[in-house]
């Protein structure tokens, strides 16, 4: 029934998209060969000048992909939004010419990823510099790759209606993994754009009791004029993740012949069943910015028009309401005898039990955040070489979870007041920079501060632009409420952790004529909060240094291409911050065009990292913890794929985990007790409609 419903939704959305793309809402005005200023020309500050495209070039280069024809369309512009200041930053479209198949895998989100196997399952990057800050609602962290946030949304303005439909699938009826996505957006008038995003993921899992389901529905829009800029975003999201605690016998993976009986991956024994985590995320965001400025009247009175509006300053406001929850529930309650003690089956995997009923832990979190800002715009006069914005933010947070008596719920409310600002320069050739800082002045974040900045410059060698950039930050972060306070059936704590201090400095060199990117960064961390070997939350007061060096080298010889990333990492305390010494991603492929319309790519790629004590996964906490029992690594997770792009359509076919067919023993584990998906066939399709 669910499959039929999904197919019906796909067909219904596809039909609407086709009808929707037929009507052109904005008609160009060709009077006097002039195009009137509409919302697209008003987004000109999101467009980098020709001599400043290096930042987007880096984004393309770092991902080993090119923006497709959609990005080059003059009718469309894309940007992301700073939700505090209202600044719009240029962005690539969410479509690429090649390596499309790579974006459909958990592995594709970093050079080295830790995840449970199915698409949509909890995950984290094994590259320390790729990890974001811990969220206020800490149970969101394992799903950050899949959450929809206003600061990450691609806002768009388009002179032609645009639709995108995506579908990917693998596995048979029992193990099927599929994902459907759709984006519909159009301008209504010259300044208003409205769009809808749908992201539905359903992975039944190739191992028992491991299914994952995501439902995300987003509505977004923006209105742009000379005087006013407005953005809005709403997302309703829910994630359900069945938990099996991992497999109990890795011999089924490493040496299947020794089992001496036929079996499927669903027959591999697991720790527990009828257990799941559910995480909900509802976000509502709205912002507005009013521009103060003047009309630049042409001195030549014969010139047509009334002059161009020049913004000088802006007044901004944003409001964001976030409603989130997490529930850990198990019906694996059959009684078993362990060393003469009767207990529920799932209880035997935990040292402590703080209440006797079946496990049912839930926590709710809500945040109501309001921000006002005042900005001075860059470039309204030749001598104004930078933009400056200051803001004031108030955040009201509410928590609710089961109390220690198991009778009622504990309620907690806290406030946080933050002031801050940004100083940036985005125009010019020789020096671009962006500096930001914020300071907690009242409430629970009193004394918390961040000072962050990046700078970029460049120089020409043989007519090619070489880019040199650096970024740094100093952070003093207050512990999150849930890091200090938590109560559940198997874990509880009441801590008074100290502030986390982080100092980071990094540099990057991009050499276009060799297609090489070199970067190195070092970070010092004090009072780092983590989950220790006993799965309890802990804090390390001593300083820890993390060094990361990265080389991206892409080679192209005719139709032959070879993209490579090599990352070296070292941690001064591997028991607190364990990291693989070397991580690789290599992608060797042939890419060519057939009859000038069809782009064809055929290749093989692999993710690989050296062995180390990678973090384990604890379902009852929905967190990753440090362990010293099992090393993971020295095994490639590779694919053989064919990727094609025909006008407005992309599609791929792929064989995943092909190394398992030629390498023994088969050690394709991403985390201890969690193997990745076995050798499978996968396919996907994406259609862009913009006419």
Please render the helix and strand layout as text.
Blueprint: H1 2-20, H2 54-62, H3 69-72, E1 76-81, E2 88-90, E3 113-115, E4 123-125, E5 155-158, E6 162-170, E7 177-188, E8 192-203, E9 212-224, E10 228-242, H4 251-254, E11 275-296, E12 308-330, E13 335-338, E14 341-344, E15 360-376, E16 387-402, E17 409-425, E18 432-443, E19 449-461, E20 464-477, H5 481-484, E21 485-487, E22 492-494, E23 500-511, E24 516-526, E25 528-531, E26 537-540, E27 544-557, E28 560-571, E29 582-594, E30 598-609, E31 616-618, E32 623-625, E33 637-646, E34 649-656, E35 669-671, E36 674-675, E37 680-690
Antiparallel strand pairs: 1-2, 1-5, 3-4, 6-7, 6-37, 7-8, 8-9, 9-10, 10-11, 11-12, 12-15, 13-14, 15-16, 16-17, 17-18, 18-19, 19-20, 20-23, 21-22, 23-24, 24-27, 25-26, 27-28, 28-29, 29-30, 30-33, 31-32, 33-34, 34-37, 35-36
Describe the structure.
The protein is mainly beta and 691 residues long. Helices cover 6% and strands 51% of the residues. It contains 5 helices and 37 strands. The longest helix has 19 residues, at 2-20. Residues 2-65 and 69-74 have low confidence and may be disordered.
């Amino acid at each position: 029934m669910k499959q039929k419903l999904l197919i019906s939704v796909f067909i219904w959305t596809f039909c609407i998209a086709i009808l929707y793309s037929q009507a052109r809402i904005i008609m160009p005005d060709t009077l006097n060969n002039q195009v009137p200023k509409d919302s697209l020309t008003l987004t000109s500050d999101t467009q980098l000048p020709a001599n400043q495209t290096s930042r987007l070039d880096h984004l393309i280069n770092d991902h080993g992909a090119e923006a497709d024809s959609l990005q080059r369309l003059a009718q469309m512009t894309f940007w992301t939004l700073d939700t505090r200041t209202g600044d719009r930053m240029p962005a690539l479209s969410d479509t690429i010419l090649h390596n499309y198949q790579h974006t459909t895998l958990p592995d594709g989100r970093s050079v080295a990823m830790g995840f449970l196997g199915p698409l949509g399952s909890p995950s984290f990057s094994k590259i320390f510099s790729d990890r974001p800050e811990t969220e206020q609602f800490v149970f969101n962290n394992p799903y950050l790759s899949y959450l929809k946030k206003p600061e990450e949304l691609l806002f768009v303005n388009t002179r032609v209606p645009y639709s995108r439909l995506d579908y990917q699938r693998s596995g048979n009826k029992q193990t099927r993994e599929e994902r459907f996505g759709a984006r519909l957006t159009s301008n209504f008038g010259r300044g208003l754009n409205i769009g809808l995003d749908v992201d539905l993921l359903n992975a039944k899992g190739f191992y028992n009791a491991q299914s994952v389901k995501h439902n995300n529905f987003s509505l977004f829009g923006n209105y742009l004029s000379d005087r006013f800029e407005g953005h809005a975003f709403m997302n309703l999201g829910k994630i359900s993740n069945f938990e099996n605690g991992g497999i109990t016998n890795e011999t089924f993976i490493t040496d299947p012949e020794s089992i001496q009986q036929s079996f499927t991956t669903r027959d591999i024994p697991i720790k527990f069943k009828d257990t799941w985590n559910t995480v909900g995320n509802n976000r509502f965001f709205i912002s507005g910015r009013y521009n103060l400025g003047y009309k630049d009247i042409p001195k030549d009175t014969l010139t047509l028009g009334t002059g161009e509006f020049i913004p000088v300053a802006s007044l901004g406001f944003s409001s964001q309401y976030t409603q989130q929850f997490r529930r850990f529930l198990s019906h694996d309650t059959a009684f078993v005898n362990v060393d003469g003690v009767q207990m529920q089956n799932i209880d035997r995997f935990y040292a402590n039990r703080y209440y006797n009923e079946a496990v049912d832990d839930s926590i709710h979190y809500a945040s109501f955040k309001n921000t006002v800002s005042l900005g001075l715009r860059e470039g309204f006069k030749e001598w104004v070489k930078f933009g400056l914005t200051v803001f004031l933010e108030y955040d009201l947070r509410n928590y609710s979870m089961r109390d220690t008596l198991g009778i009622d719920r504990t309620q907690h409310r806290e406030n946080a007041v933050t002031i801050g600002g940004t100083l940036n320069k985005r125009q010019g050739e020789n020096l671009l920079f962006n500096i930001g800082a914020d300071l907690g002045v009242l409430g629970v974040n009193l004394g918390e501060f961040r000072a962050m900045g990046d700078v970029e410059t460049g120089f020409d060698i043989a007519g090619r632009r070489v880019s040199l950039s650096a970024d740094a930050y100093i952070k003093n972060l207050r512990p999150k409420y849930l890091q200090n306070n938590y109560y559940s059936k198997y874990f509880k704590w009441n801590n008074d952790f100290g502030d986390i201090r982080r100092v980071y400095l990094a540099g990057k060199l991009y050499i276009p004529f060799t297609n090489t990117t070199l970067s190195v960064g070092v970070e010092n961390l004090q009072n780092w909060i983590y989950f220790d070997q006993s799965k309890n939350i802990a804090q390390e007061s001593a300083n820890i240094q993390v060094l990361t060096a990265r080389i991206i080298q892409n080679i192209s010889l005719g139709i032959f291409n070879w993209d490579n990333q090599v990352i070296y990492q070292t941690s001064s305390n591997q028991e607190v911050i364990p990291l693989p010494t070397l991580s690789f991603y290599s992608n060797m492929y042939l890419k060519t065009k057939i009859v000038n319309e069809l782009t064809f790519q055929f290749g093989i790629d692999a993710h690989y990292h050296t062995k180390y004590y990678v973090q384990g996964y604890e379902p009852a906490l929905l967190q990753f913890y440090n362990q010293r029992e099992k090393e993971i690594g020295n095994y490639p997770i590779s694919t053989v794929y064919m990727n094609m792009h025909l006008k407005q359509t992309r599609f791929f076919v792929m064989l995943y985990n092909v190394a398992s067919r030629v390498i023994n023993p088969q050690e394709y584990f991403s985390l201890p007790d969690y193997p990745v998906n076995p050798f499978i066939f996968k396919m996907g399709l994406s259609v862009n409609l913009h006419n």
